[in-house]
Each structure stands twice: as C-alpha cells, then as structure tokens.
Automatic annotation (TrEMBL):
Belongs to the OAF family. The lineage of its organism: Eukaryota, Metazoa, Chordata, Craniata, Vertebrata. The keyword Ubl conjugation does not apply. This is Out at first protein homolog. InterPro entries: Oaf (IPR026315), Oaf_C (IPR053897), OAF_N (IPR053894). Residues 1-31 form the signal peptide. Transmembrane segments: none annotated. Residues 208-272 form the Out at first C-terminal domain. Keywords: Signal. Residues 35-183 form the Out at first protein BRICHOS-like domain.
C-alpha cells in the first residue's frame, strides 16, 4: 500500500527545469490576496520588478510593473465579471509644461484561456526570488480600437475593481463596442457605456502626431506590454497518481496597442516623441 499524500517531488524536479512550481495547500478563506514579486526582463532588455497578486475569494488577479521611464503599468483580471482592466500612469515631463502624471484605463473582455485561474495563481511560489525571468512564450501582439467611453461613476456595475484601479483616469476609461455587446448580454446596465463624440471615425479623425493644435481632438495611440505572466498551467504525470496533476506554469509575454479618441491633442503628448 502506498502512502496516500506523498508529494512526487523528485519526479517534479526531473520533469521541470522550472523556476516556479505550484506548492502548498490551498489558502483559507479570508486569508487576503497572495503576493508574488518577480524580477522580469522587459522587451527592451531592461530588468524591472513585477508584483502579481491573486485573490481567490474575489476570483481576481492583478499585475503591476514599473517601466524604466517611470510609467506604472497595471493589469487586473476579474474572472467573476469577464473583465480585464489595463491602466497606465504615465509621468509627465514637467519641464515641457505637462502635468505630473496622466492616467489611462482600457477595459476589455477577459477570456478564460488568457491567464491561469486565480486559485492557481494564489498558490504560486518561487524558489529563487533573485532570478531574472523571461517569458517562455511571446504571444502575438494585439491591436485594440477603443471606441466607447466608460462612465466612471457607473463603472462598479461592470466590475467592482474599476473604482480602485481607474480613480485617476475618470475621464479616460475606454472600451470597445464588441465587448460592450457581450457585457450587455450578461446583464450589465447600459448606463455604464457612453458613445464617444466622433465615434472614432478614423478616416475623419487625424492621428495626434499629425495635429499641430493642442486644443484639437485626435486619435491617440498607446501601447504597453505585460512582460511576464503565468498564461497556462502545466500538467505532470506520475506513476503514483492516477491522473495528470498541476505541477507548474507556462509564462507568456504580450503587448497590447490601443487607439482611442482624445478631446484635446495635449492629452496625447507622448506621441510627440515617436
Ligand atoms: C455618468 O452617469 C451618471 C449617472 O447615470 C450621470 O449622472 C453622469 O452625467 C454620467 N457622466 C457623464 C460624463 O456622462
């Protein structure tokens, strides 16, 4: 008779040249979010620290990283509401007369296969916190045309995370018609969404780079990258277990590029430096 609960540790070590593994017992209810700090290599080669938090009670994951230019990028996955929120806090260049920082929020539909479940994320531990991690897989970049505004005061009806995450971006929360259609079918109230003035008719609206007048509306562009995130669970086989079991993660990197309407060209000043 074999011992029922012996972990197959040697097998795991052999099968996985993995830096991270799923260890430990499930967290108790009310234990609060689990946090993991990892050092990651950005697409441009620089190293930064990334914080990943998972809250299995709220069924959500959040990720935050600071880019070398000071921009704070955050990503929140709300599995309960099928919502993901990207936020960028972009530092202004004070010597150019820009404000201290500018916040942007992009809200889109979360699909199940984009990132590992929150309960698996909450169990992630790393063996070597000093190691610099590089994603195993670079996923295809995504272009998103953000053509609808989200009303901040109604945002809680879409996701309870929106208020916290997008506080600094009350006038700059964007989403897409195709995502809105999905959420409306899920029963989200339509008062959350507002049409943008020009409905982003790209043909008529000039790109901000081509607009000289800082008071004119234009189509702005912003891209960000999630440098390292657990995108899939890995399964191992063991002679001691009847079925494959979760024994690690696969890490991914992915870039997102957003087009959106700004009422004034001066709200899109980073486009100048391109
Ligand atoms: C947001 O929604 C509230 C409540 O429906 C409304 O009073 C307010 O005018 C809306 N804000 C904007 C900017 O449309």
């Amino acid at each position: 008779m074999r011992p029922p609960c012996r972990p197959a540790v040697p097998t795991v070590r052999l099968l996985l040249p993995l830096l991270l593994s799923l260890l430990g017992a499930p967290r108790g209810v009310g234990a609060g979010p689990a946090e993991l700090r990892v050092r990651v290599r950005l697409p441009d080669g620089q190293v930064t620290e990334e914080t990943l938090q998972a809250d299995s009670d709220a069924d959500s994951i959040s990720l935050e990283l600071r880019k070398p230019d000071g921009t704070l990028v955050s990503f929140t996955a709300d599995f309960k509401k099928d919502v993901k929120i990207f936020r960028a806090l972009i530092l202004g260049e004070l010597e150019k007369g820009q404000s201290q920082f500018q916040a942007l929020c992009f809200v889109t539909r979360l699909h199940r296969n984009e990132i590992i479940p929150s309960e698996a994320m909450a169990k992630l531990r790393q063996k070597n916190p000093r190691a610099v991690r590089q994603a195993e897989e670079v996923r295809a970049p995504e272009q998103l045309h953000m053509d609808i505004a989200v009303n901040f005061s109604q945002g809680g009806l879409l996701s309870p995370h929106l208020h916290n995450v997008c506080t600094e971006a009350t006038d700059a929360i964007y989403t897409r018609q195709e995502d809105v259609r999905f959420w409306l079918e899920q029963g989200v109230d339509s008062s959350v969404f507002e049409a943008l003035p020009e409905a982003m008719e790209q043909a008529e609206l000039s790109h901000c780079r081509q607009v000289g007048d800082r008071g004119k509306p234009c189509a702005c562009h912003y891209s960000l990258s999630l440098a390292w995130y657990p995108c899939m669970l890995k399964y191992c086989h063991s002679r001691e277990r009847p079925a494959p079991y979760k024994c690690g993660i696969r890490s991914c990197q992915k870039s997102y590029s957003f087009d959106f309407y700004v009422p004034q060209r001066q709200l899109c000043l980073w486009d100048e430096d391109l």
